[in-house]
Amino acid sequence: MSYFTYLMEGERVGIRSFRLADGPEFAARVRESRDLHRPWLFPPATVEEYEPYATRLIDGDGRAGFLVCELATGAIAGFVNVNNIVHGAFQCGALGYGAFAHAAGRGLFREALGLVVAYAFAPSGRGLGLHRLEANIQPGNKASIALVRGRGFRLEGLSPDFLYVDGAWRDHERWAVTAEMTEGFA
User: Fold this and answer.
1) How distant is the alpha carbon of residue 70 from its chain centre?
2) Domains and their CATH numbers in the chain
3) What is the pTM of this model?
4) H helices of the chain, where?
5) pLDDT string in tens for the chain (186-residue length)
């Protein structure tokens, strides 16, 4: 049984905020998942790298980070971050996420992404109060595209040379979902 307070819970996973104390487990899971993440994703693989990363998510304005945890054990299954949050007329954020190898292919991230989207669209005080979320994904990352497609995101276009990843500017497909698209989303 877990000792954590989750922001939201599904049947098998819960989402909670990052903590500095999660560094050793997070970094170990990243190292175990290196083959799964490359060449798409480069999360912090040491406690020393994790601390500034987590601090930006804990204290930073314009971003929110969520650890995805298995409810049965409390084990960290991955993470979903909402970056570049803009309120006002835009009310949008950009998703970044990664499952860890032990959790991949088990449907946990489909559930987790639904929880994060619901939390992001919940009114301020209960959530982030956003209207739109975007996921920018390299065209060859079939698993990530399948995840967002399966959660109801729509393909909006291609952004050439969008992000600097693994030593080069990479094209990304832009997928998005709005609050109106998520009725019955869970």
Assistant:
1) 15
2) 8-182 (3.40.630.30)
3) 0.93
4) 23-32, 34-37, 47-59, 108-121, 142-150
5) 456 789 999 999 999 999 999 999 999 999 999 999 999 999 999 999 999 999 999 997 899 999 999 999 999 999 999 999 999 999 999 999 999 999 999 999 999 999 999 999 999 889 999 999 999 999 999 999 999 999 999 999 999 999 999 999 999 999 999 999 986 555
